[in-house]
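Please check both lines for our workbook:

___
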Amino acid sequence: MRTDLARALAAGFLAGEWSRAGLVESGTAVVGHRPGWLPLLARQTLDLYPRPPHDRPRELAANVATRPAAAKAVRVRALARPVTPTRMLSNRWRLPVLDGLGDVADLVGVTASELDWFADPRHLARAASDAPLQHYRVSHRVAPSGAIRVLEAPKRRLKGIQRLLLDEVASLIPPHNAARGFRPGGSVRSYAAPHAGRPVVVRLDLEAFFASVSVSRVYGIWRSAGYPEPVAHCLAGLVTSVLPLSVWHAVPHPSDDGLLDAHWRLGRRLAAPHLPQGAPTSPAMANLAAFRLDVRLTALADSWGGRYTRYADDLAFSGGRGWGTGTSRLLDAIEDIMLDEGFRLNARKTGVMPRAGRQTLGGLVVNHLPRVPRAEVDLLRAILHNCHKYGPSTQNRDGVPAYEQHLRGRIAWVAQHDPVRGARLLAQHDALDWTR
């Protein structure tokens, strides 16, 4: 059966009564007569869908085309092309009800044509080589490891849409409990604390975390939330991007030859629709995309008598003394699960840390209670001392804007994990004359 006929029949079936007689009547209206294969097609469709799939018109059309009776629809054309509205059939997280694209446009405050432009279903903006036609401003920077990070910052209007989708929709979908970042109540401390005082701590890193999340996976998240196919496609388009080839060619290669393979893989990922690093929705969507990964790694850690948490692309495991001799098998099992879930381990950042040495997670030392490293606290104390002796302006050698607030933020980070030391540093800070 031709694709256009299958789609027209599916729309006609959904617009009419969901019974054998109703489907035959609707199908007759679509093709203009009652062919002999239509009653059999109606019965086969009802066998597959006892209830009308109002949220899955495309799936229905694809399955109608593959029914045995459909093979008899040779050289049949659709005379009528009914349009039937979709609607949500489930809403377990009590999300905003978005039955169709009109509801999405109303939610984000744009017209239908503007929604089509921002969601870009025809890939017009994604394939555009002119910067004014693209929805993202692209930049790059060198990471401490020497790798090149590509940042895709949405332009003002799209960023506003994404921020609204994050606040009103995505943040209401709960990630796995092991995900400790980019969620209400999550923090670096909640990521590190379960591993404090453990004999062995294992730290791992996901390669190109956001770019590894494909648009099909994002679409699946929206479908799992209960949104109909057209709505899920639209929402997926609003939160994903494609890096134009001309822009990628302007990104420099890392100076370390050992990073070239990872850089090549990053380019492959960015050339396909993915979560952009720089969009406000990407952290929450990446958390949800990693749900199955978190489920499986939690089960793996449990089977080893250990613990597992994740903060964005940073993964942490911890266990007993026996882990010191068996971690190679654990790492192999972790890598197999990652590959199976569509992610890749950044082997350069893997660390197995016994308690005899310093164990760090997320910038915190976890040998006992999670704390900021002593060297960082001592550096802050020295800076504050020099500020008092020579004046704050003499210590701002890098020209940091709002230096007073900058130092206060660093002190707050210490105080969050060590209130006593933090209070002492804050007292030094507040005693300074910031006019010097």
